[in-house]
Amino acid sequence: MKFVPFSFTQAASGKFTLPLNFRGSLMKRVWAFYTGTNWTSTTNGNLSRLECKKNGLVFSDCYDLDARFDQEQNKKVPQANLFVADFIVDNNHNANIATMRAVNQGNGQVMVYDSFDFNAYLTDAGGATVNCIAEVLDSVTNL
After folding, report:
1. Which of 9, 22, 36, 128 has the most other CB atoms within 10 Å of its CB?
2. Whole-structure pTM over 0.90, yes or no?
3. Cβ(129)–Cβ(35) below 8 Å
4. Residue 26 sits in which domain range?
5. What number of CA atoms fall less than 13 Å from residue 3's CA on the CB side?
């Protein structure tokens, strides 16, 4: 298991793609520590939504309120100024997101990396600094 850091700074609100690259690892969670407005029990924080796409198809699109609800239902505790895209929130470790797949080519198969887009939606007009930590399963020599 590895924790891979990524950083992103933006000076405005809106939709922004986070610079995440997984190079064939199995993705468990993406922790996004952000600056700006914190969430309350009835409102989203500055990072209000995270849309996750794999090869152009949305596989997760979650608002901050919904993510925190899922965490609480699975006996996890949401933290201030933190958005967690938790793909194994129910502790089902077979739900990891594969970032590489086999493709038939010629007489055999080759492994190719999948393309990912993580679109963060920021609500503060002043923007934010987002420090992401990807929790992945990976070989020692990769990433």
Report:
1. 128
2. no
3. yes
4. 2-137
5. 5
